[in-house]
Amino acid sequence: MLGFVWTLRESRLYLYGQRFLLRTDHICLRCLTTFKEREGRVAQWLESLAQLDFEVEHRAVRLHGNADALSRTSFTQCGRLVKGSAGAVHAAQL
Q1: DSSP secondary-structure letter at 62?
Q2: Number of neighbouring beta carbons within 10 Å of residue 56
Q3: What is the pLDDT of residue 92?
Q4: Locate the Reverse transcriptase RNase H-like domain: which residues (predicted)?
Q5: What are phi and psi of 22, to 5 degrees?
Q6: How many distinct structural domains can be found in the chain?
Q7: What is the DSSP letter of 87?
């Protein structure tokens, strides 16, 4: 839940004034705006997000194929990585 709140806070300038849909596999977030007793940290989070107009939609994990595309790709052959001065990767052949 903290990741969701952090992302919306960081993206506030782009999202403010627009209605948007948040699709997530975290089913508890679907009830985010319907908490009856808001206390502590959750109350602070909801207060900071109150200006945004969004809807939370749950999508099962097995239907989120696009979210894990890079982590689930199988590589048959990897090239060598060329590292620069600060250890950054400059080129890779996949």
Answers
A1: G
A2: 18
A3: 47
A4: 1-51
A5: -110, 115
A6: 1
A7: S
- What DSSP state is assigned to residue 81? P
Q: How far apart are CA 58 and CA 24, in angstroms?
A: 5
CA dihedral sign of residues 66, 70, 72, 73: positive
- 55 within 8 A of 21, measured Cβ to Cβ: yes
Structure-block tokens of residue 54: 């969004």
Please check whether residue 33 is in contact with residue 56, taking contact to mean a CB–CB distance below 8 angstroms: yes
- Amino acid at residue number 70: L
Over residues 39-55, the mean pLDDT reads 84
Expressed as residue numbers, the domain containing 67 is 2-91
Please check the confidence at residue 25 and state whether its pLDDT lies above 50. Answer: yes
Torsion of CA 5, 11, 16, 20, to 10 degrees: -70
Give CA angle at 9 (4, 14), nearest 5°.
110
